[in-house]
Design goal:
Elements: H1 3-9, H2 11-30, H3 35-52, E1 61-63, E2 68-70, H4 72-99, H5 107-124, H6 128-146, H7 153-184, H8 189-195, H9 202-218, H10 228-234, H11 237-243, H12 246-262, H13 267-289, H14 295-316, H15 319-345, H16 363-366, H17 368-382, H18 388-402, H19 406-432, H20 444-457, H21 465-479
Antiparallel strand pairs: 1-2
Length: 480
């Protein structure tokens, strides 16, 4: 085995891991005073990890005896993951400084780097053991991040709920992996696929069900979504923005790889599971958001709803369907980060966060630019043209129809109308309700990120459609 070539393929994860260890020492010696230095260095490290994808890390093939695969599919996901992680780090210092200076700690960006390293392993995993190690590395960091504000009871509660339910989901996934291994005699995806050819045994089918159940928790798909609203509400807002983007991308891309590479021959078996989860997530995510008064809980149900649409593309089981999933993920990450950046702007004159949706009343008159950006994100999440969210939904529905899943596409399209209600309600509150107390002053860095996200999601982003289409199709082709 050529260790130099294998290490070159895992260069992004090596950069993240070694940098996280070095920055942990800086944090230990520098204390809280080193937070901003560690944060901006971490952003630079994530940028370096993206640059590291330019070599063998995006096209080198299998490494370490088939445990890890460096291909265009994984590289696509890693660009999204590292980008979302960088934004989550940039968002954090101002938030923690305003809420409680004691929470402004350098461990936050280090945990993000370690989680990103785990997510990198997840999306490149071609063996059940690599899958599980990457998943747990990400999860262990996430449990700490959820309860990062130690004096906040909501944050502590979110961390505990996430840990308990996450441990349960990991147990379910591990049981599924053990069944697959027991009845196939291997943990490698390629060899597992061979075992599913023809008529798989009952043990393999049960293993398939448990594996997808464990992964469904990680992507917060119905019926394993119950943790999402509580954790999103209780965790600090930058952490919630991180949870809603990077780990979700990693879990969805991992699910796609397991479905196509490890269990591709059992398409008709897992297609039923994915179809049910897609429809249930679309309907429950939309219905559950209608009565919400907290903006973070509303975005949590929005996340569940969007996962349902993403799974419509996976249910197709085709290259076009996977390309639609990847394209949807790009749009989803940008509009979700943009929405949570707007939530960060929702604070009173003393800097304390406000999460009540009614506090947005009359925002179009007090902060017209912020209201316009939020309206763009809401229209895009609802899938209303000409925002890019419409193109993303159209792509997954088109893939489903092309694969012969016409009823799934029709039901998903009709159910999307329900979701439009609560998104448009937010716009109505901002533009037609009487103004309440004005928010405190904005932050220039956050404002710049909001503007960039809004421009990307707006009709201006149409100029990138062809490039995104080519990129996502090339990544999907690598999987097949």
């Amino acid at each position: 085995m050529d260790y130099a070539a294998n290490l070159a393929m895992t260069l992004p994860e090596l950069v993240l891991t070694l940098s996280a260890l070095a920055l942990m020492m800086v944090a230990a010696w520098g204390g809280n005073a080193s937070t901003r230095l560690v944060s901006w260095t971490s952003v630079a490290v994530l940028a370096g990890a993206v640059v590291a994808l330019a070599g063998p890390a995006s096209s080198g093939g299998d490494a370490f005896y088939g445990l890890y695969r460096a291909d265009a599919f994984a590289a696509f996901a890693k660009v999204l993951i590292f980008g979302a992680a960088a934004v989550a780090i940039i968002m954090a210092p101002g938030f923690f400084e305003r809420t409680d200076g004691d929470n402004l700690r350098p461990e936050y960006p280090v945990l993000i780097l370690l989680a990103a390293a785990g997510m990198g392993m997840m999306v490149s995993a071609t063996d059940m053991m690599t899958l599980y190690v990457g998943l747990e590395l990400n999860s262990l960091a996430a449990y700490v991040l959820a309860s990062f504000m130690r004096r906040d009871t909501r944050s502590a509660e979110a961390g505990l709920k996430y840990f308990v339910l996450g441990a349960l989901a990991s147990g379910i996934l591990l049981y599924g992996i053990s069944l697959v291994y027991g009845f196939s005699g291997t943990t490698g995806f390629d060899s597992i696929a061979t075992a599913y050819v023809g008529t798989p045994s009952k043990g393999l089918l049960f293993g398939l069900v448990f594996v997808f159940a464990g992964l469904a928790f990680k992507i917060s798909a119905v019926p394993f979504h119950m943790w999402t609203p509580d954790v999103y509400e209780g965790a600090p807002t930058p952490v919630t923005a991180f949870f809603g983007t990077a780990p979700k991308v990693a879990a969805i891309v991992l699910t796609v790889r397991v479905a196509v590479e490890a269990m591709g021959p059992a398409l008709h078996d897992w297609q039923q599971i994915i179809t049910f989860a897609a429809l249930a997530s679309i309907v429950l995510g939309a219905a559950g958001a209608i009565g919400q008064t907290n903006i973070k809980r509303l975005l949590a149900y929005s996340s569940i709803n969007n996962v349902g649409f993403i799974l419509v593309g996976l249910a197709a089981g085709t290259q076009q369907g996977v390309a639609a999933v990847l394209f949807y993920l790009v749009v989803y990450v940008v509009m979700t980060l943009g929405s949570f950046l707007v939530v960060l702007q929702m604070r009173d004159q003393s800097g304390h966060p406000i999460e009540n949706i009614d506090s947005l009343a009359g925002l179009s008159r007090s902060r017209p630019a912020l209201a316009l950006a939020m309206a763009i994100f809401m229209f895009s999440l609802a899938g209303i043209p000409p925002m890019l969210g419409f193109n993303a939904k159209l792509a997954v529905f088109d893939a489903a129809v092309s694969a012969g899943l016409f009823p799934l596409a029709v039901i998903g399209f009709v159910a999307s109308v329900i979701g439009a209600f609560y998104y448009l309600r937010v716009v109505k509150i901002m533009y037609f309700d009487e103004p309440g107390a004005a928010y405190g002053p904005g932050d220039s860095v956050e404002g710049g990120l909001i503007a960039a996200a809004a421009v990307f999601i707006s009709p201006v982003g149409w100029v990138l459609l062809s490039s995104l289409g080519v990129w996502s199709m090339a990544a999907a082709k690598a999987l097949f």
